[in-house]
Amino acid sequence: MPVTLTKLTLEGFKSFAEPTDIVFDAPIVAIVGPNGSGKSNIAEALRFALGEQSMRALRGGRGEDVIFNGAPARARANRARVEVTLDNTKRIFPLDADEVRIARTVVRDGQQTYEINGSKVRLRDVQELIAHGNLGPSTYHIISQGEADRLLALSPVELRCAVEDALGLRLYHTRRAQALVKMADSRETLREAQGRRAELAPRVAALERQLAKVRKGQELAQALAEAWREYVRRFRGFFQAKRSQIEEARVRLAAELEVAREQSASYVRDGAPDPATALEDAREQLRRAREAYRSVEQEVRQLGERLARAKGARDAWEHMRSAHAKEGNISLPQRILRDLLAALTQARSFLASGNHDKAAELLRSVEAAVSSLLSTPNEEENNDAQATRDLRRLEEEIHLLEEELTSSQTRLEGAREELARSEESYEAAQAALREYEKATHQAREAQTAYTFSLQALQEQEKTLEEARALFEEDAREVAALLRDPSLLECSLEEHQHDKAAQGGEEAVWDEASLSRYRRDIERMKLRLEDLSRIPAQDIEREYEELSDRLERLTRDISDSQTALANLEAMVREIDTDLSERFAAGIEKVSRAFDEMVRTIFGQGSGSLEVIVAQRDNASEDAPEEDEGATPRSAATARLGVVIRVTLPKKRITSLGMLSGGERSLTAAALVFALSSINPPPFLVLDETDAALDEANSQRYGALLERVATSTQLIVITHNRETMRHAERLYGVAMGPDGVSRLLSVRLQEAAAS
């Protein structure tokens, strides 16, 4: 016969203040003692060690109520400890040990600890372990005092729970309860994860938008760098071209100025006179030539006048002489007067014909003749000799005058030629002066133009240098903006190297194109500056962190949803299994109960009937679930079980019609029927035989012998018939100090002695 419960150790538990070991070494062990000795505390100690959470079942109000509270002669204990030792050689329990020790300790402050084989564990671990052995603190295998009769008073739902425990369905309920707890945890985890994701997702989305701006900024930075390098390349060409143009213009202007200066200087180079001085000299020479010409001309005119007068006088004398010879009777004055009239007539003719010189000459002759005539007395007092001398002298004078006139005319011709040369020299000097002034003017204009052009070039150079300074400032800004110091190395001096690297090709834009391109770069810079205000590293770091968290949350949500679905499937599977096992098991229990009733009463019948409890009634009848109680399956939660009993020679419509003995035997039949289907390792029966008479006690004893073949029995009793069937008997007595003590007797050995 099996012996599973091998030892119970109590210390400080209720009335067992001292360490007490109770060894269970027989299939049926009886515990006897007077009322108040503390023998029922042994059944409660077993409940306590196996994890009972209902203080009502332990006849207490708080956890520390189970601790020995002292007596007048003994101090109270500070803790209560109960240890149950179970045989596990058949590996009833899932531990690789031949012995399983389950201990529970409670201290005055209410703290409790559980141990399995000396290791601290959780209550759940204890519950799971004993469930494999079809044990539990509140199941049918520990029937406390008066509880057997209460089995008959259980509600249908409560009785159903007892049947489920007897069928070994507690483990399924435990697993289901654990699954429900896990489902609740998963739902809570899922809810929290979804809540955190709901809080986190907008921030991650905002960070994604920020990160998109950062990426846009990076793309813009790359585009700006490329645009800047292209701008540098173009600007270099533009700068070099402009600088070359300015240098070429400077050289050209210098050459033009040099030519103008050379032309101006050519007039005074190699000892040549200054054109103004030469003109002044030519003017002076011309003046002297004119004066000389006028002097000679006056001299010639005077000589001509003198010669004309002389000739006039000679001609007048000759004429008078000739006329006197022809007209002897005409007086000389008359003849002279006639000649003068003829001369005047001829002079007027000359004047009329425009020969003024001839007219003037004749007039001068007439004047001379008139003068001569006036000086000549009317009577010729001179003789011809004197006239001849005068005439000869006149001839000589005429000859001298003619020679002198010829000489003067020659000199006049020379003076005229000299005057012509002087005039030519003067005109040449004037022309030279004009050329000189023109050249000088041109030189001044060239100098002025050079000055203006040079100023313009200097302005261009200044503008170009300003452009270069602006370029270098832009380079620093772009380099700082792009955080790329290498861009500062894109100096204008690298132009030739780049040009050679490009095979001599050069991209040169005009200023307008460069300005447009620079405006585009400025817009890119402004846009990039806006984007650069975003703390990229912080954004990326936060985004990576939060996106990882969001990804983990998403995985957690998915895992929780999967776990929840799996748990729901598990619960459905457990519910299905429970329904099937309960349906099959209740039939077996009902048959076993019927057999027990027939065995005990000789006739009659018994059955367990499954009913559907009303929702309200089910709520009212549902057993109180204390801390640690196992929730029941929804598949059987609304089912109830009622007891049907018929006895010989007695019409029974309800269990309330049974006598005390009949109720005790019916309750025993129910307990033994429950234990026969899925036999527990042991049964504890606390005074279940108290109401039996001798005949019924014998029947009860026969049942004990029958049940003991499959289940170890610990009976707490006053019944002698029951004691007779026990192999080990423990007596419990309480001394004056209020402490329970044991006395052990092995009945077979006692009977043999």
Describe the structure in your own words.
This protein has 753 residues and is an alpha/beta fold. Among the domains are: 1-140 and 680-752, 3-Layer(aba) Sandwich (Rossmann fold), CATH 3.40.50.300; 275-321 and 336-371 and 385-460, Orthogonal Bundle (Helix Hairpins). It is built from 17 helices and 14 strands. The two termini are 24 Å apart. Mean pLDDT is 80; it is low at 499-506 and 616-628. A 6-stranded antiparallel β-sheet has the order 2-1-4-5-6-7.
Can you list the strand order of the major beta sheet?
A: 2-1-4-5-6-7
| Secondary-structure class | alpha/beta
Q: Mind summarizing the main beta sheet?
A: 6 strands, antiparallel
Shape: rod-shaped
Please work out how many helical segments DSSP would assign: 17
Please describe the topology of this protein.
Layout: E1 5-11, E2 20-23, E3 28-32, H1 40-49, E4 79-87, E5 99-107, E6 112-116, E7 119-121, H2 123-132, E8 142-143, H3 147-152, H4 156-166, H5 170-265, H6 275-326, H7 332-353, H8 356-375, H9 384-482, H10 495-501, H11 511-532, H12 536-601, E9 605-612, H13 615-621, E10 639-646, H14 660-677, E11 682-686, H15 694-707, E12 712-716, H16 720-724, E13 728-734, E14 740-746, H17 747-752
Parallel strand pairs: 3-12, 3-13, 8-11, 11-12
Antiparallel strand pairs: 1-2, 1-4, 4-5, 5-6, 6-7, 9-10, 13-14
Helix pairs in contact: 2-5, 5-9, 5-11, 5-12, 6-7, 6-8, 6-9, 7-8, 12-14, 12-15, 14-15
